[in-house]
Design brief:
The protein is about 35% helix and about 20% strand. Helix 2 (about 45-60) crosses helix 6, helix 3 crosses helix 4 and helix 7 (about 260-280) runs parallel beside helix 9 (about 345-360). The protein is an alpha/beta fold and about 375 residues long. Strand 3, helix 4 (about 100-110) and strand 4 form a beta-alpha-beta unit. It has a seven-stranded mixed sheet, with helices on both faces. It has a three-stranded antiparallel sheet with strand order 13-14-16. The protein has two domains: about 5-15 and about 260-360, Aspartate Aminotransferase, domain 1, CATH 3.90.1150; about 15-260, Type I PLP-dependent aspartate aminotransferase-like (Major domain) (Aspartate Aminotransferase, domain 2, 3-Layer(aba) Sandwich). It is globular, with a radius of gyration of 21 Å. About 45% of the residues are buried. It is built from nine helices and 16 strands. It has helices spanning about 15-25, 45-60, 75-85, 100-110, 230-235, 245-260, 260-280, 310-320, 345-360; strands at about 5, 65-70, 90-95, 115-120, 120-125, 125-130, 145, 150, 155, 170-175, 190-195, 205-210, 285-290, 300-305, 325, 335-340. It binds 4'-deoxy-4'-aminopyridoxal-5'-phosphate (PMP). 4'-deoxy-4'-aminopyridoxal-5'-phosphate binds next to helix 3. 4'-deoxy-4'-aminopyridoxal-5'-phosphate binds near residues 75, 76, 100, 177 and 178.
């Protein structure tokens, strides 16, 4: 039986990439060693690192006045790094749209005063996000922080930061942990983009930071060294021994994306996959999605069974049919299908088929 893994993260990675990793795990490029066993300072590994940086720059069209950093501590590490490095006057604007942006507020408050704006609007049981032009960000803010895709809630923001009315003097920081590389964005609309790697990039534990170089001079000496952006940049992400295997795997994922047409091509596939699933939910009498159409996530499709007593049965039967990790996050319940870049359309079709069969059976 083919198994499709809908886990929100760590999530499935492209099969082709995993097969390549497997084939060269014990003897990498005829060195007689695994890439995991090589010095991060060896010319061989430096080449991998440089190719990974170049790969991401090319995929996301990152201009030269931005840097790519590989950092440790995943997405949450950045909840601390961002305020620690970017703090100036001591106040920052944080927009909340779901669980992850709320958690960023809790961490941010440890280092500065967070001015929180909850931008969720609920009408007829459907949540949408206030248009960016209605976010009231003070010009005095050290930065604005928000989450482009709320992994738990299945809420995504598609508007560009250029819709914000605040000037570019307030740096724009976004968490793209669960939608980086899933669709085209203009990097220059933002000043700092970060993402935990374990959804669209590679193994967990690592974060990718894309930072406007103009912000690097904000990192003061008091910032813990391994979280310091300026030092990370100066040391080519090797102040401490970097997660070499994760960087190697990321490079392979970037190669895979490039080979398959880059971000433009994967965006079309992602839109097609999400459309199939949302349509199946909207056309059914058993399932419902609670996000307004303009904010429905392309990556994390959340849905509820109108008869919640069927939840466990749905999860069990799904698993028996090769649909695994479909349960929603414990904080919101229901179901969640995470359909990141690596999920083939066949997986989404298999899920939809299962959902239809399940609905008929339990009518
Ligand atoms: N932000 C978002 C949007 C996430 O989805 C996650 C993890 N699911 C995090 C932050 C936290 O990442 P980590 O667990 O790597 O710290």
């Amino acid at each position: 039986m083919t198994v499709y893994n809908f886990c929100a993260g760590p999530a499935m990675l492209p099969k082709e990439v995993m097969q390549k990793v497997q084939s060269e795990l014990l003897d990498w490029q005829n060195t007689g060693c695994s890439v995991m066993e090589m010095s991060h300072r060896s010319p061989e590994f430096i080449e991998v690192y440089e190719q990974a940086v170049a790969g991401l720059k090319s995929l996301m069209k990152i201009p030269d006045d931005y840097s790519v950093l590989f950092m440790q501590g995943g997405g949450r590490g950045q909840f601390s790094s961002v305020p620690l490095n970017l703090k100036k006057n001591g106040k920052a604007h944080y927009v909340t749209t779901g669980l992850w942006s709320e958690d960023a507020v809790v961490e941010g408050n440890k280092f500065l005063t967070v001015e929180e704006q909850d931008c969720r609007v609920v009408v007829n049981g459907k949540t949408s996000i206030l248009p960016l032009a209605e976010w009231n960000v003070s010009e005095e803010s050290d930065f604005i922080h928000y989450c482009l895709n709320e992994t738990v809630d299945g809420i995504e923001i598609f508007e560009s930061a250029n819709q914000l009315l605040v000037t570019r003097d307030v740096p724009r920081v976004i968490d793209m942990s669960s939608n980086i590389l899933s669709r085209v964005i203009d990097v220059t609309d933002y000043d700092l983009i970060y993402a935990g790697a374990q959804k669209n990039i590679g193994p967990s534990g690592m974060a990718i930071v894309i930072i406007n170089n103009a912000l690097l001079n904000r990192s003061s000496e008091s910032v813990p060294t391994f979280l310091n952006y300026a030092i990370t940049k100066a040391k080519d992400s090797m102040y401490n021994t970097p997660p070499t295997f994760a960087i190697y795997l990321s490079k392979l994922v970037f190669d895979w994306l490039q080979k398959n047409g880059g971000v433009e091509a994967i965006e079309q596939k992602n839109r097609d996959k999400a459309a199939i699933l949302y349509q199946a939910i909207d056309n059914s009498e058993l399932y419902e999605n609670r996000v307004a159409e303009q904010n429905r996530s392309l990556m994390n499709v959340t849905f509820y069974l109108k008869d919640e007593s069927l939840n466990q049965c749905f999860i069990d039967e799904a698993k028996a049919n090769g649909i695994v990790a479909i349960e929603g996050h414990r904080s919101v319940g229901g179901m969640r299908a995470s359909i990141y870049n690596a999920m083939p359309i066949e997986g989404v079709k298999a899920l939809v088929e299962f959902m239809k069969t399940f609905e008929l059976k339990h009518k």
